[in-house]
């Protein structure tokens, strides 16, 4: 049975060395078993057959969200949402403007500009 | 002349190989208002005697990367030359409404949010150019934040040396032990940049960790 870290929620396969050493992500030493049969039973009991259409829409939306490519979203003047992970991992900067259009910036334009030396 | 330069470069390269680096570029990173600029000022004042400004209670006071070159710190009868790079606070959301409560006009607040967003990009671009990172956290705040976890994950992936600084230990509700528990794989140094508490331990750690 897989084990789940009680601190950060990371899941390890049965027999994984990290369960003995401690969680590789947060260092936590406490794990609990995940009873997959119970999880499936809970999942099944939560499905609302009467509202399948809405669920389908939500599912589609979540797929679109996962494919988000913009590093910065301009929601409105003075309102910005930044994806630090994408900004740190990728060289290009993709900005979604408030009208829904996208702007792509070449990284070299941003690199080490306007460095104020004290 | 060129031959002399070449010999000199080779000599220093040889010395650096034996004794470690003698000059390192260290970036001060972290969420807004954790005391990055206060710490940068403390380091600069302690080792150069210079006074620098740019601190306030309003978040995102530092909106441009600021660099101070050639600060020599001494530890254990040896010295290390640092370039200190103070960066704007990293955040996932910038909302001008948050600045309105600090008596800024709407235009000033919107402009501050825009500059803060530019500052975040500039800070991240600087990561490519550093030898090590001091990640500053507020000991009175919960360390399990998206910003902290994202920064640590990325710095680990880049294999950049990292020291975590648990700042503001002078405050009564400070719990630096929570930061130590949260990131046990990294060295955490509890300090108060404002009061100078435990600052000597930080200097020794910088020397040992980044040289």
Automatic annotation (TrEMBL), chain A:
Domain of life: Archaea
Protein name: Zn-ribbon containing protein
Organism of derivation: Methanoliparum thermophilum
From TrEMBL, chain B:
InterPro entries membership: AAA+_ATPase, GTP-bd, P-loop_NTPase, Small_GTP-bd
Residue ranges occupied by any AAA+ ATPase domain in the UniProt entry: 22-193
Annotated SUPFAM superfamilies: P-loop containing nucleoside triphosphate hydrolases
Membrane-spanning intervals of the chain: none
Gene Ontology molecular function: GTP binding
GO CC, one annotated term: cytoplasm
Pfam family, one: MMR_HSR1
GO annotation terms (biological process): tRNA methylation; tRNA wobble uridine modification
PANTHER family (alphabetical): TRANSLATION INITIATION FACTOR IF-2, TRNA MODIFICATION GTPASE GTPBP3
NCBIfam families from the UniProt entry: small_GTP (TIGR00231)
Protein's name according to its UniProt entry: GTP-binding protein
